Amino acid sequence: NVAKAAGMMGLTAEMLARMHGISREMQDAFAARSHARAWAATQSGAFKNEIIPTGGHDADGVLKQFNYDEVIRPETTVEALATLRPAFDPVSGTVTAGTSSALSDGAAA
Fold this sequence. Notes:
This protein is mainly alpha-helical. Helices cover 34% and strands 7% of the residues.
């Protein structure tokens, strides 16, 4: 069986999770670990030569300097992820807003 992206990436993720036996618990653990590792790498300066600070406005219109990936959530825990509802398949889904990619513009400087 070959995975093909048909429609939303979230539904593709659901299909791949079923195909490869990736449980909800496995996804939650991976996501929590991923956020922790990304934050640790950011704090250690691992991305300092890859991200060029740029100015912009935050959600309230305040001018701000952006110099790190805003999608990293260092406070993410397996316990918090376990409380989230499936985002793409409400009946038997395993992919949540906390374990799927962010809806973002992906902008970089």
